[in-house]
């Protein structure tokens, strides 16, 4: 395969200056030469996940953002509130590449057999710095895509699929038999719904709008609760009683929802309690916060006894915990079901420069269901 590889290429970078200003721009960087066990990938597709936005924007007030520069080389700036600068201390004056995952075509390979085997093949990757035209990765860290899959098909095959599978695996390892998921109409939520249907796992989906209830039920979901319904707590308790779910994964983070889930779990469990205890039921209830769609404080009312826990859950820590062999089995399932169980959909496709336009930022910055953006780094590049 003969491919013209430039000496330099574009990479999106995010910088928070000590003066209190965010600057996002397209930097021209040298295209790396792969080592013996590495491959150079021309990135064709990379998604904008909610998990990318924290690094992309930091604590900046994006509502006050301005875009300057040219159409092909835009520069976005936004103020960072003074009281938020302390939280940004670890990245002050450091230009940081962005983008957790992506997919593309191997255009150059090192001398090792594993690297050479990927030459000219389509692969997916995770490891940061994906909002770029080229990315160098170790061959063993690349997931070979099926022949009939496009880079767009594989662009989101790590973060959302492995998170959804990780939730199910965590449920099993911690001795639960059913689970609860919030923001359940998201791409990730729809994947989790398909996994649970396929694996016969009872799932309680929590959404925020009636049309999201209808969306998931049309996809086979049995239990879908609308948090905006006046009867939400009663409906959630009924769903928990029917499924026996005692573990939840909350993408919202802030506000009352995590505490409400624990309250309803306790109410559902109490229905079958053989005797009253002022300490609550003895069954352990677990809520994991894995997202921050709401950055407000997490508020709980302690009315669910003493057998409960609330903590954080992060994909990368989970994969480290289960080890390489178990993680590889999850990746193999993703590859096998890439265009079915783990299929992703996108509402918009933009270039690197297009991702820095205010009309796009206004949409994907809301992290709304049905508004997922895909960046095509090698399209629409102007000089």
Structure description:
This protein has 383 residues and is α/β, with parallel strands linked by helices. 28% of the residues lie in helices and 27% in strands. The protein has 10 helices and 20 strands. The chain has helices at 50-57, 113-116, 151-154, 159-173, 187-199, 210-218, 232-243, 257-270, 315-336, 358-364, and strands at 8-17, 21-30, 38-48, 66-69, 74-79, 96-97, 101-109, 122-126, 134-138, 143-144, 179-182, 203-207, 223-226, 247-250, 253-255, 285-289, 294-298, 308-312, 348-350, 373-375. Strands 3, 7, 8, 9, 10, 19 and 20 form a 7-stranded mixed β-sheet that branches. It has a 6-stranded parallel β-sheet with strand order 13-12-11-14-16-18, sandwiched between helices. A 5-stranded antiparallel β-sheet has the order 4-5-2-1-6. Strand 19, helix 10 and strand 20 form a beta-alpha-beta unit. Helix 4 packs across helix 5 (187-199) and helix 7 (232-243) crosses helix 8 (257-270). The chain starts with 7 loop residues before the first strand and ends in an 8-residue tail after the last strand.
Properties at a glance:
7-stranded mixed sheet, single chain, 28% helix, globular, alpha/beta, 383 residues, 6-stranded parallel sheet
Share in helix: 25-40%
Unreliable spans? none
Order of helices and strands: EEEHEEEEHEEEHHEHEHEHEEHEEEHEHE
**In what range is the share of β-strand residues?**
25-35%
Distance between the termini: 27 Å
Number of strands: 20
Give the class from helix and strand content and strand pairing: alpha/beta
- Shape type: globular
Radius of gyration: 22 Å
Mean pLDDT: 95
Q: What's the number of helices?
A: 10
């Amino acid at each position: 395969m003969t491919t013209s590889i430039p000496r330099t290429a574009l990479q999106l970078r995010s910088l928070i200056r000590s003066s209190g200003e965010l600057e996002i721009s397209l930097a021209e960087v040298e295209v790396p030469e792969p080592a013996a066990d590495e491959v150079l990938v021309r990135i064709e597709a990379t998604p904008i996940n909610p998990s990318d936005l924290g690094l992309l924007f930091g604590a900046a007030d994006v509502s006050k953002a301005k875009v300057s520069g040219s159409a092909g080389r835009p520069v976005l700036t936004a103020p960072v509130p003074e009281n938020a600068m302390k939280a940004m201390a670890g990245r002050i004056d450091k230009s940081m590449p962005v983008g957790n995952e992506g997919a593309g075509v191997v255009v150059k390979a090192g001398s090792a057999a594993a690297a050479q085997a990927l030459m000219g093949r389509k692969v997916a990757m995770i490891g940061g710095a994906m909002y770029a035209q080229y990315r160098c990765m170790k061959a063993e860290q690349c997931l070979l895509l099926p022949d009939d899959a496009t880079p767009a098909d594989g662009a989101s095959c790590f973060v959302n699929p492995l998170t959804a599978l990780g939730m199910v695996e965590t449920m099993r390892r911690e001795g639960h038999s059913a689970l609860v998921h919030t923001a359940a109409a998201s791409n990730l939520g729809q994947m989790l719904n398909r996994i649970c249907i396929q694996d016969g796992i009872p799932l309680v989906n929590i959404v925020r709008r009636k049309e999201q209830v209808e969306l998931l039920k049309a996809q086979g979901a049995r239990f879908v609760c609308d948090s905006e319904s006046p009867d939400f707590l009663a409906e959630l308790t009924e769903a928990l009683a029917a499924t026996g779910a005692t573990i939840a994964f909350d993408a919202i983070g802030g506000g009352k929802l995590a505490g409400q889930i624990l309250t309803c779990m306790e109410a559902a469990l109490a229905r079958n309690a053989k005797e009253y205890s002022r300490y609550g039921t003895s069954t352990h209830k677990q809520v994991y916060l894995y997202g921050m769609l709401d950055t407000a404080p997490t508020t709980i009312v302690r009315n669910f006894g003493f057998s409960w826990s609330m903590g954080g859950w992060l994909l990368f820590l989970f994969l480290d915990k289960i080890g390489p062999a178990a993680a590889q089995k999850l990746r193999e399932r993703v590859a096998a079901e890439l265009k079915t169980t783990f299929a992703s959909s996108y509402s918009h496709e933009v270039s690197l420069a297009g991702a820095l336009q205010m009309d796009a930022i206004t949409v994907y910055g809301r992290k709304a269901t049905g508004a997922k953006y895909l960046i095509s780094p090698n399209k629409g590049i102007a000089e």
